[in-house]
Amino acid sequence: LDIIVLTICAVIAEAEGWEDIEAYGRAKFDFLKGFLALPNGIPSHDTIDRVFQRLKPAEFERCFRSWTRALAEELGLKHVAIDGKTLRRSFDNAAGKSALHLVSAWSIENHLTLGQQAVDGKSNEITAIPELLRLLELNGAVVTIDAMGCQKEIADQIIEAGGEYILAVKENQPNLHQDILDQFIHIHENGDARCRHYRTTEKGHGRVERRDYYIAPVPDTLRNRKAWRGLKSIGQVIREVERDGKETWELSLYISSLGTNAPRFGKAVRCHWGIENSCHWVLDVTFDEDRSRIRKGHGPENFALLRRLAIALIKRLPTKTTVRRHRKKAAWDDSHLLTILAAAA
Predict the structure, then answer these.
(1) Rounded Cα distance, 235 and 241, in Å
(2) Which residues contact 294 (CB under 8 A, 6 or more apart)?
(3) Mean pLDDT for each 10-residue chunk of the chain (345 residues)?
(4) What is the pLDDT of residue 73?
């Protein structure tokens, strides 16, 4: 337990590997002795490494998840985004081990990782998503997933758990994709009073971005529509970006168990990328996760959970200060680290 608590403190305070954790412990020994036993002093980085290589990720995450579940119940769970991320430097060629790919559930409103599931590669997200969903309390929540999770079984599982879904549709579902595309072409050419529209315009950083959100009832022409449990609407998003006099655009299609409320649909789709901006981007830029060379045993998966725990604790603080700034301050100021740790209560 001393090693786990030492590691959590060190990761919050900018440690990026086992040697950093040992160095942090030696520099902060007197402070740490205030709440840790440390009968043999600060353990070596090799000892810390061995502990996290052998610590079962499922058990470690179970403890983490019990805290996040209680926190989510306290704060209210409204929007859960599911997405995957590869830890690019976690491969170990000598051991025949590929890079670790994690599928995570992210609470948009609370900036909180609710759980994670390790898979062999992005292609296996289809099997990992149901496992992850089983760990979550989804009653009353809206779940958004990219096209890899657009599966009838996943939609059924979300509805069965009392949630709602918005699933991206791409060419991996060719008939569904074509039918939705054809329907929106018909709507744009001929009109449909049942279709709802919502537009947002954002300006900044030298660009103008316009998003048009369309949502309509499921048409009778949608093949196999009854196989999608709870399906009520289809959605389309047209995104136009103007920068330096050049325009680019992209089109995305969706199916949903929600009704035809365009602003609600638009907000959910836009906020889905919160897992990229508030979690994955922070992990790569602030925690340098993509360049981490931790690769042995269960070390990569356990350290990934430590980073996500650090984000969750820091995001609990009632301030707009960046995660990077909080980590630096925690490294300099022991009282600030204690303030962050107290957020777990």
Answers:
(1) 20
(2) 17, 18, 90, 300, 303
(3) 93 95 96 93 96 88 75 72 79 66 84 79 76 88 93 96 96 94 96 94 88 96 95 97 90 97 95 78 83 84 89 86 94 94 77
(4) 67
Give the DSSP letter string of 68-123: HHHHHHHH---EEEEEEEEETT--BGGGTBPPEEEEEEEETTTTEEEEEEEESSGG
* Complete DSSP assignment for 56-72: -HHHHHHHHHHHHHHHH
Q: What would the two tokens of residue 68 be?
A: 């996040």
pLDDT value of residue 177: 97
C-alpha separations of 262 from 66, 197, 205 in Å: 35, 6, 27
Read off the tokens for 140. 């009353």
> What phi and psi, each to the nearest 5 degrees, are found at residue 339?
-65, -40
* 215, amino acid identity: I
* pTM reported for the whole predicted model: 0.80
Q: What does residue 144 show for φ and ψ, rounded to 5 degrees?
A: -115, 135
Q: 200 by DSSP, 3-state: which?
A: strand
Q: Tell me how far CA of residue 305 lies from CA of 11, 223, 302, in angstroms.
A: 11, 41, 5
Strands of 142-145's sheet in order across: 112-119, 100-107, 79-87, 142-145, 164-169, 246-256, 233-243, 207-217, 196-204
**Angstrom distance (rounded) from CA 113 to CA 61:** 11
